[in-house]
Amino acid sequence: xxxxxxxxxxxxxxxxxxxxxxxxxxxxxxxxxxxxxxxxxxxxxxxxxxxxxxxxxxxxxxxxxxxxxxxxxxxxxxxxxxxxxxxxxxxxxxxxxxxxxxxxxxxxxxxxxxxxxxxxxxxxxxxxxxxxxxxxxxxxxxxxxxxxxxxxxxxxxxxxxxxxxxxxxxxxxxxxxxxxxxxxxxxxxxxxxxxxxxxxxxxxxxxxxxxxxxxxxxxxxxxxxxxxxxxxxxxxxxxxxxx
Length: 243
Prior knowledge:
243 residues, 10 strands, 31% helix
């Protein structure tokens, strides 16, 4: 039988936001891999998974999750992680990889699947979608992501605030991920583009340390790395005005 690697989206942190299909996939796998940084602390994916499967079924694998400057170190970490997961597949047959959010949206799972596919010929790779941080923030803040014909643009601010500024100059809602370390730049860009007053940001969604606030309150102080921003467009015309 072919071995199977399943990327399971476990949402932004609130264990209640894991789908039934996601829970079933975690429980059906022989092993559940969770990504951790080399500092060793428990990440959100691991904390969420432990609500649904016993700790002895969970395998922690180190990834260079925040490494962006040292490409050689990042590649070496991906290779080592891929080798580890490939070994688990050969031994156990089915492995679930838990990732925060969705496995097809800015996820480490993408790189892992590419590596494992080269190391384990014939491996079946599939994914279980997860609720994203932008969906959770919209629900917790009351922000509407899209109406009618509006587009939705998602940008990672790790690419720089210029990318965000370009997106904000266009129509529709703009969502920014991982902007916490550039909070000051982001606030200024929102101000320049007239999007500050209606924008909201959130971090640690669904966790005890959760913060959901108006972007107008940002004072330039760095925020948690995994902060999410929603900047809706100016909407007029009443109900259905964007149809």
